[in-house]
Amino acid sequence: TGAMASRKTKWWAGGGLAVVLGSGYFIYSLIAAQGQGNLSQTPLNIQKPVPPAFVMALDDSGSMVWETLNNTRDGVYHWRDGTGFYNGSTPYGYDLPSGSGLRYYYLTPPYGRGSDAIPPLDAFGFARSADVNGAYFDPRENYPAWKTGSSSTNPAEADYMQIDPENAPVDPRPGTATGKSTLFQKLTAVETRTGSNWRFRFRNGMVLPVGTVIETAFNRGAETLLCTTNPTLDSRNTSTLSGSWRTLTRQVTVSGDCSAAMQYFPATFYLVNKASLPASYGYTATPVEVTNPAGGRPGTIYKYEIKPDNFATTAQYNDAIKNFARWFSFYRTRREALIGAATNALLGTSNLRVGWFRINDRAEAKMYSMTDEDQKKA
Questions:
Q1: d(Cα 79, Cα 215) in Å, to the nearest integer?
Q2: What is the count of structural domains for the chain?
Q3: Structural domain includes residue 169
Q4: In a domain, 372, yes or no
Q5: Whole-number pLDDT of residue 18
Q6: Taking residues 17-22, what's their average pLDDT?
Q7: Which residue has the higher pLDDT, 205 or 361?
Q8: Short-list 129, 114, 108, 130, CA closest to 266
Q9: Residue 352 within any structural domain of the chain
Q10: With 70 as the cut, is the pLDDT of residue 9 above it?
Q11: How confident is the model at residue 374 (pLDDT cuts 50, 70, 90)?
């Protein structure tokens, strides 16, 4: 009898515990159910939510049209007169060495901005490599067009404009933009234009290799040379190509400071590590090795040209040249890159008011609703 009572006590105790646990779980389930759902992102006591505001302060200083991002102050490259761009493995920057007259801000012709563009020589390919100059075209990245709005049926309608590699605008901003350039560049062929808009800056000590095609000038019918060199550019080491161009038949060294156009293929880039280019890019040609060039970056760098014969398929070439064209027009300068980043970042936003002002022209910021498609496109 005592054993039976003991067993009943255990059953009652076990049953009571089960009831308690079951009741606890039931109560927990009710509480958990009440906690399901999305938490409000606005105070609960606000009856009519106000969209948050986002105001941008945009840099409109002169450096925003530069095309260099050297890892030094202001990102420019500096030529050491008679020597080169590098001190060992370290590139010269804004104030190294001393003096402001040897700085370089551009990789493409000045297009009216000045004359401080690095000549497109293989020796200076480092400046046209995203591995060294972060502002330059990177074939491993996709460069989307600027955006002006969105479309639920056709997202491509949000593109600001399409860039034709045969006729890429140097400055894609609207026609009313301050200081807008109306120049265009054909990215698929050798550039052969001369004159101030198409000249690069040559410095004392720069070495021009055999085959360089460089501009000369004519004064009252007599040919004069824009650059002084050692040996002198004359019929002994050049051959006349046509008009104002001469082709070097021997290596010469620039012995003065001058600006001159030179023929070059625009859709060109360089990589430090050729294995970093994905096979899916489709480049099948052997890149040109440039090793320890005079005045350039120590080591080896690899040159690539975006030409149809250098790709496995026409489709891969088209993708590559169109991507380069979008970079050229939409991201080549710091200003254009800022516009591209901002418009793409804001494309998918809604319930947000956005405004901006220039840091050197601090006018009142006009706010635009990202919910209103017309304002979003404005």
A1: 22
A2: 1
A3: yes
A4: no
A5: 44
A6: 44
A7: 205
A8: 108
A9: no
A10: no
A11: confident
- Whether 38 has a pLDDT exceeding 70, the answer reads no
pLDDT above 50 for 110: yes
Which structural domain, as residue segments, surrounds residue 297? 57-205+256-340
The phi and psi torsions of 132 (rounded to 5 degrees) equal -115, -45
Picking from 86-90, 231-235, 347-351, which range would have the lowest pLDDT averaged per residue?
Answer: 231-235
Bridge partners (DSSP) of residue 283 are 311
Q: Residue 75 and residue 73: Cα distance in Å, rounded? A: 5
Mean local confidence (pLDDT), 25-33: 50
Q: What is the pLDDT of residue 155?
A: 63
Do the beta carbons of residue 203 and residue 255 sit within 8 Å?
no
Integer Cα distance of 176 and 159 in angstroms: 19
H/E/C letters for each residue in the chain? CHHHHHHHHHHHHHHHHHHHHHHHHHHHHHHHHHCCCCCCCCCCCCCCCCCCEEEEEECCCHHHHCCCCCCCHHHCEECECCCECEECCEECCCCCCCCCCCEECECCCCCCCCCCECCCCHHHHHHHCCCCCCCCCCCCCCCCCCECCCCCCCHHHHECCCCCCCCEECCCCCCCCCCCCCCEECCCCCECCCCHHHCEEECCCCEECCCCEEECEEECCEEECCCCEECCCCCCCEEEEECCEEEECCCEEECCCEEECECECCCEEEECCHHHCCHHHCECCCCEEEECCCCCCCCEEEEEECCHHHECCHHHHHHHHHHHHHHHHHCCCHHHHHHHHHHHHHCCCCCCEEEEEECCECCCCCCEECCCHHHHHC
Say whether pLDDT at 59 is over 60: yes
The pLDDT of residue 43 is 67
- Whole-number CA gyration radius for the chain: 31
pLDDT mean across residues, the chain? 84
For 15, phi then psi, to 5°, come to -65, -40
- Residue 114's pLDDT is 75
Q: Is the preceding omega at residue 97 within 30 degrees of 0, hence cis? A: yes
Q: Are 205 and 250 in contact (CB under 8 A)?
A: no
Which amino acid is located at 60 in the chain? D
Has residue 246 been placed in a domain?
no
